[in-house]
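Practice set, problem 2.
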Amino acid sequence: MINQENQPVVYVVSDSVGETADIVARAAVSQFNTGNIDIRRIAYVNNTQYISDIVREAKEVPGVIAYTIVLPELREALIKEAKNHGVPVVDILGPMIDTLKRLTGRPPKMKPGLLHKIDKNYFRKVEAIEFAVKYDDGKDPRGILKSEIVIIGVSRTSKTPLCMYLAHKSVKAANVPLVPEVAPPEEIFGLPRGRLIGLTIKPELLNEIRQERLRTLGLKSGADYASLERILIELDYADGIMRRAGCPIIDVSNKAVEETASKVLEIIRPNLQ
């Protein structure tokens, strides 16, 4: 049994966050009695003197150094210093980078932290996804004025999947269901042209979709929700709302969400410039 004073240590060393090497080290340590092996992460190593200090400490413990250093001068300094002091090292990224370099015939960028580089586009996409969830299905009319595009249509015309797809394209999309018994928010009638789009669908197809939806929920397929008569009433009502709003109308019959989204993006692209 190794006592606490002589407990071996895995030094996770990186010129970035060090999360990759840390995960690999913990996965390896988990195969042993983890209480007998310590892991110490040392991130953002950016000079050779720091490397020398780490190696000397690892020699005394004893320890092993697992590293993800992409800057050549720092990596070479670590390898040389570790060899001089007899400290074992494990290169986590090197073999994979070298293999990909041979496979692609391209030189690696050799810039630390690229995996964790989060730019404005990332934040915009996350914000758009949160927006789509918050303002889904007309939950909050305030989202209409905040959105970049508002989708309207009767139930089961893929409004929610469309908004989520657009969100992954960093577009803030809200959707509002059109139901004859419920007046739509007045805000939709004041939107600038190109910010409101209506979805329609062939009644027979919608009938099939709704019947399948009811079967999935364990309900009787003969419910009024799925009746062709009810569907015709809803579609006629929705068509009147869309024409009143003066918005473009897309027929989603037998169209994939991606295809509908492509048409939507064509319409709203001038507004996103």
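Problem 2, part (b): a different protein.
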Amino acid sequence: MIDNAMKTQLKDYFKSLDDSISLVVKASENAKQDELLEMLDQVASCSEKIDVVKDNELVDVPSFSIKKNNEETGISFCGIPGGHEFNSFILAILNSAGFGKMPDEEIKERIVALKGNINLNTYVTLSCPNCADVVQSLNLFAALNPAISHTMIDGALVIEQAKALNVEAVPTVFSGKDIIRVGKTDLLHLLEILEENFK
């Protein structure tokens, strides 16, 4: 799934990791579970700081979350983050450890200032570059602010759920049961939306 060239690149990215990163996988009888486990094992093999931990909680769709030093980061993936979302996954590991693309200090302060129990879900398709931009921004918010949690959801694996929620385009971002953004946007606009509700 991950070729040798990519593994070499990942090893280079992960050299800076000081914290222990756990990829916590929920149990699933879904046919794609083995594919998810294989991908996570291959990523974890690129750094002694990363391990894969199996959770006994049973879910319908292959899912995992990221912990840093055994603490929740608030970042989860429902589905297998391939395509553009593979970059989101790798950046989530780096952001959790304080590396990767980071905003300037003023923007960081605004993200950290958000208050409340902020649970965000983004429905995506793996071929959508605009989805990855949104996922990466919201994962970064979760990495910086413990009040925020964010889950990427592969809409192709939860078709009936997406229909029930009236997801008609991607990316679609939910706060709880409320749609707060549909379509292409950037980190600053997402921050402004959250500031309207959680400052």
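Answer key, part (b): The beta strands are 21-28, 50-59, 63-68, 71-78, 118-124, 148-154, 172-175, 178-182. Residues 112 and 145 are 5 Å apart (CA to CA).
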